Automatic annotation (TrEMBL):
Biological classification of the source: Bacteria, Bacillati, Bacillota, Clostridia, Eubacteriales
Cellular component, GO annotation: cytosol
Protein name: RiPP maturation radical SAM protein 1
UniProt domain B12-binding: residue ranges: 157-235
A Pfam family annotated for this UniProt entry: Radical_SAM
Matches recorded under PANTHER family: ANAEROBIC MAGNESIUM-PROTOPORPHYRIN IX MONOMETHYL ESTER CYCLASE-RELATED, BLL1977 PROTEIN
InterPro entries named in the record: BchE-like, Cobalamin-bd, Elp3/MiaA/NifB-like_rSAM, rSAM, rSAM_horseshoe, rSAM_ocin_1, rSAM_sf
Co-factor(s): [4Fe-4S] cluster
Species of provenance: Heliomicrobium gestii
GO MF, one example: cobalamin binding
Assigned keywords, A-Z: Iron, Iron-sulfur, Metal-binding, S-adenosyl-L-methionine
Superkingdom, taxonomy of origin: Bacteria
Positions in coiled-coil regions: none
């Protein structure tokens, strides 16, 4: 039997599908022939690559993108006519997220981030309706016509679709068209959008779908193909010819009832093969040859682990990743190392994105240490928890990790505790500081609108943010928390005082059929909370503060807070607040400042200050000894009062922050960021050094 695996719109076009790449390799290992068709590339070329990217990259459009394909799912002619007459209204309602979170009231009005976003907002208001009506009424019918007549579907026995949350309606639509012309083709779906109750309802409602693979697809798909190869009656009650139960699939019994077979055992990660991306690059080449356009194609995806090691301990309350299985397991580091080498060699790409939910550093410390010796010069991306230490981030940087997505989510310790992030304000600031030091680009969201959050949780952030304008800001605008299936907030709603849970209204626009149970196919839900603050203006203040942070960090005069240390002193250069300042710390102040380069407790600071500094901060030469002796008052141990006074002065100068009895210096080392400092600021630093123009802390 021969398979065709299809990647539909609105899958990303900048890199291949790792899901289909792995399945192709796993099927080949078991002697099963499979091709992969990137119909998302074909469609993107039809509507324009820039437009496709603008639409597919934004979560705001996720409902709209599925709705564009829904006409081919509607079997009732009168309903089809009715839906056709309400297209403009539907488009406007589909992009509104006001019902997504009860904190999104009329009080909340984020403004555009500069001209580029303002232009994009104008595009949304003035052009989106016209563009989408053309795509829906002209481009998509033409796309399906060309696909049906241009793709050799008759060669295949089984046609499978990968379904993420913007691919489900497109996949269902094409499946119906194929089934109408080729009634003997076996149609199956798989992916996170058709897991659990969602897949059961899709299979019940759409008779042209034969099977759905849920959970991990490798073993389930091989077993299903082997069963179909040896059985004429399709599924024979869910048993193969040897009488063993098939696992990991949804199917219909003889009387049409939807059955969920038991799950497949999780596949050992070292059994997961290297993904095969050959068809992606060959299709890219064909499009380039036909159009004369060059397509972005510098990146491939790799996988080293599945599940979430943190979620196994304490799942973040809002998180829905991994669906029904959080169990973490990983490849041996040697296997991951060979995968990276093989992918880079086969596809001649040095940019590789890891699709793991979260890096578990101990599992891959040896891999990260081995990569600098490999001479591969890779540029890697990983998703990480912001608990990585300075030394661990330095190892990542040396290994070629240029970008990370960090699960920071917020800077309020009260909020972070509320959602079980296992983090704090200080830890998150330390993470973005150390990432900036090692030139690792950090992408992260700022989330708000959690059940039971209070305005007071955000008060300190308005003071904090200007102090860290020299570090990477969160993406703008901040995002409301979305209540999602599989999250703890959804599964334990009553315990968190969450009420009135309903599927997002947009689903009814995508699937207007009266006989569908929207609650079963929905991933996102609207909700209410027992306690919502009457005055939600704090969200506007936080949003404006994050906007200002983004503007200053992204401008031509990016703020700088940097230091360089010498024998017994530290020089600090500060342009965060408009006027450039240079500050000199001597003796005990220098010791304390350097000691708090990472988070330190008050007890640790006291011990270090009274013993003469960390070993790496100490210098036996006379200038350092003299300044330290002076700081101690002529050889006496530094008093607690003197240490407390210096800590207060460092905070007053906005060079250090505190949380409870823990302290963190905010400056990064000058030598680590010198090449990223704006020219005018660098000139000011040079002048301060040349003329030794420094202000000092009061004694």
């Amino acid at each position: 039997m021969k398979l065709l695996l299809v990647n539909m719109p609105w899958g990303k076009i900048d890199f291949p599908s790792i899901q289909l790449g792995i399945l192709k390799s796993y099927l080949a290992r078991h002697g099963i022939d499979a091709d992969v068709s990137y119909q998302n590339l074909i469609f993107a070329n039809m509507i324009g690559l820039d437009l496709y990217s603008r639409l597919s990259i934004s979560s705001r459009y996720s409902y709209l993108l599925e709705w564009l394909f829904n006409e081919f799912l509607i079997t009732d002619p009168s309903l089809a006519r009715e839906v056709r007459n309400t297209q403009e209204r539907d488009i406007r309602e589909l992009i509104s997220l006001k019902s997504a979170n009860p904190f999104l009231t009329e009080q909340y009005k984020p403004s555009p981030l500069g001209n580029a976003q303002a232009v994009n907002e104008q595009f949304i208001e003035d052009e989106l309706v016209k563009v989408c009506k053309k795509i829906k009424n002209e481009t998509i019918p033409d796309f399906f016509y060309k696909l049906l007549n241009g793709l050799s579907l008759s060669e295949y026995d089984i046609i499978g679709f990968t379904c993420s949350f913007s691919q489900t309606a497109p996949a269902l639509s094409l499946a119906r068209i194929i089934k109408k012309k080729y009634k003997d083709k076996v149609i199956l779906l798989g992916g996170n959008a058709v897991s659990g109750d969602m897949g059961m309802e899709y299979l019940r409602l759409f008779p042209w779908i034969d099977y759905i693979v849920y959970g991990e697809g490798e073993r389930a798909l091989v077993d299903l193909v082997e069963h179909l190869r040896t059985n004429d009656d399709r599924l024979n009650g869910g048993r193969d010819r040897h009488g063993h139960d098939l696992k990991g699939i949804l199917y219909r019994s003889g009387d049409g009832q939807v059955i969920k077979a038991p799950p497949q055992p999780l596949i050992p990660m070292d059994d997961v093969p290297l993904p095969n991306y050959d068809e992606y690059f060959s299709q890219i080449g064909a499009i380039e040859a036909a159009t004369g356009k060059k397509l972005k194609q510098d990146t491939v995806l790799f996988e080293t682990a599945r599940g979430c090691w943190w979620g196994e301990r304490v799942q973040c309350k809002f998180c829905s990743l991994n669906g029904e299985n959080l169990h973490y397991r990983s490849k041996k580091w040697e296997t991951a190392y060979e995968d990276l080498r093989a992918l880079s060699r086969r596809y001649e790409r040095n940019s590789l994105i890891c699709v793991d939910n979260i890096l578990r550093y101990p599992s891959f410390a040896e891999l990260l240490s081995a990569l600098p010796e490999s001479k591969l010069e890779l540029e890697l991306f990983w998703e990480v928890k912001p608990n990585l230490t300075r030394a661990q981030l330095q190892t990542l940087a040396k290994a070629g990790v240029k970008r990370v997505q960090a699960g920071i989510e917020n800077f309020s310790t009260d909020v972070l505790k509320l959602i079980d992030k296992g983090a704090s304000m200080l830890k998150n600031v330390q993470f973005i500081k150390n990432s900036y030091t090692f030139d690792i680009q950090v992408s992260y969201n700022f989330l708000f609108g959690f059940p039971n959050e209070k305005p007071a949780y955000y008060d300190d952030l308005l003071t904090l943010f200007p102090l860290i304008h020299h570090l990477t800001p969160p993406l703008y605008p901040p995002k409301p928390m979305i209540l999602q299936r599989f999250s703890r907030y959804y599964g334990q709603a009553a315990a968190h005082h969450i009420t009135r849970i309903e599927p997002m209204s947009q689903y009814k626009r995508i699937y207007p059929m009266g006989d569908i149970d929207i609650e079963k196919i929905a991933m996102n839900f609207s909700f209410d909370c027992a306690e919502i603050p009457e005055d939600l203006d704090y969200l506007n203040r936080i949003t404006e503060a994050i906007k200002e942070w983004n503007i200053r960090y992204g401008g031509n005069h990016r703020p700088v807070l940097a230091y360089e240390s010498g024998a017994g002193h530290v020089k600090i250069y500060d342009s965060r607040f408009g006027r450039f300042k240079s500050i000199l710390l001597r003796g005990l102040a220098a010791i304390i400042f350097l000691h708090c380069d990472d988070i330190k407790t008050l007890n640790s600071i006291m011990e270090t200050a009274q013993s003469g500094g960390d070993r790496h901060d100490r210098d036996e030469e006379a200038p350092y000894a003299a300044s330290l002796d002076a700081a101690r008052g002529g050889g006496q141990a530094a008093s607690q009062e003197a240490i407390q006074r210096i800590l207060e002065q460092l905070q007053f100068k906005k060079l250090m922050i505190r949380e409870g009895d823990r302290y963190l210096s905010l400056a990064v080392q000058l030598k680590d960021i010198q090449h990223r400092i704006p020219p005018q600021t660098m000139q000011n630093i040079t002048q301060a050094k040349l003329y030794h123009a420094f202000e000092e802390l009061p004694r």
